[in-house]
Amino acid sequence: MGIFEELQERGLIAQVTDEEQIKNLINNGGAKFYIGFDPTADSLHVGHFMALCLMKRLQMAGNKPIVLLGGGTGLIGDPTGRTDMRAMLTTETIQHNCDCFKKQMEKFIDFGKNGAIVVNNADWLVNLKYVDLLREVGACFSVNTMLRAECYKQRMERGLSFFEFNYMIMQSYDFLHLHNTLGCNMQFGGDDQWSNMLAGTELIRKKTGEDAYAMTITLLLNSEGKKMGKTAKGAVWLDKNKTTPFEFYQYWRNVDDADVMKCIKMLTFIPMEKIREMEKWETNRINELKEILAYELTSLVHSKEDAEKAMETARNLFSGNIDSANMPKTEIDESNLTNNELSITDALILAKLTTSKSEARRLIEQGGISLDNEKVSDFNLKLTKQQLTKGVIVKKGKKVFHKIILL
Q1: Is 289 left (phi over 0), alpha (psi -120 to 50) or beta?
Q2: pTM (2 decimals)?
């Protein structure tokens, strides 16, 4: 089985511009491909994870990755999947985020001699002269075609700025630049990038007369059709300081039953022969599958040691043996206290277990909050300084455990 066929069986391939050519290129190690990452935060998140795994799979099959950090496009902001305009970042923030991305990527991609190439599109986009750009590529883009692109259509009602309208042109220019300077012949990305990627292949054809190819990977959606990788606290980050290894492990340990095998296929490096056997397991082994998924992904992103600690902590928690050593925790200081006390609703908000007092109150009324194994029934409950100094264990629902402690 070639890498293309494996990607198909894992359910990773969404759309391709030329299936036979792409299959031939990547199966024979002939793809010099790029994936772009816009540095909108100082850490990669689960949304980037599948792209990194794809890059790793293709590199293992002999293909040449080009990591494009969007130092230039990040100054504009991608309107794809947005209902509002992204916050504009400073050049200093973008550079810091690019540095953080590169460090995290080194766990997945080989950047050694003859390994992956890292480029930053700020190196060629920032110094472009507007009139020169218009003369070079302006005639290659049809405004009517651009407005039919899904990434723009969903923004038209709320208002699409001319600033963001240029994003497709910038991304296409990236592909042309990489094609001309590095021999890049393919672009990969999420399925929501299809319109931008097609525009890039068309720009290359018009400007050079040569062919380039694009392939999108399936978006990671749950059984309800929503993007995976979000929690009540926000994104699931790859940086352990933003999402701890235990929280990361627990996210995957708690995925819906219907999503487990899909995630194992798409995200892990377990051989397909073994996965086919796992698909035959009885339904009463679903928790075993979830542990395998969580362990494999935590090992990939963090380490086997972190994965083992997270698995042990999770097992202890659910067997009633509270081990708070590796549990997610929130440290507070005395400024959060009033008369040496902290209300349970404020505690839940500080720990980001709820977003508001009304949500906290509703959870308590519904019996969804426990404190040190005791169900909380009074939403006016106060935690004392003495309790907080020792540390309290909050349980939200059946699966979320969190320690709150006073510094």
Answers
A1: alpha
A2: 0.79
3-state secondary structure of 44: coil
Question: Pairing between strand 369-371 and 32-37?
Answer: unpaired
Q: Quick check: 169 and 141 in contact, CB under 8 A?
A: yes
pLDDT given for residue 83 in this prediction: 43
Whether the CB-CB separation of 168 and 195 falls below 8 Å is answered with yes
- Where do we find the tokens 């049809």? 142
Q: How many CB atoms lie within 10 A of CB 180?
A: 13
Cα(17)–Cα(250) distance, rounded to whole angstroms?
38
Nearest Cα neighbor of 217 from 188, 184, 259 is 188
Alpha helices in 18-129 (DSSP H): 19-27, 46-60, 91-105, 122-125
Q: And the tokens for 213?
A: 């190819």
Q: What is the pLDDT of residues 186-218, one digit of tens each?
A: 999 988 889 889 999 999 999 999 999 999 999
Q: Could you give the CA distance from residue 345 to residue 376 in angstroms, rounded to a whole number?
A: 11
What distance in Å separates the CA atoms of residue 366 and residue 344, rounded to the nearest whole number?
A: 15
Give dist(CA 72, CA 168) in Å, integer.
13
Q: Is 71 exposed, middle or buried (0-12, 13-18, 19+ CB in 10 A)?
A: buried
Instruction: Specify the DSSP element, H or E, that contains 213.
Output: strand 213-217
Contacts of 264 by beta carbon, 8 Å cutoff, 6+ apart: 270, 275, 278, 289, 292, 293, 296
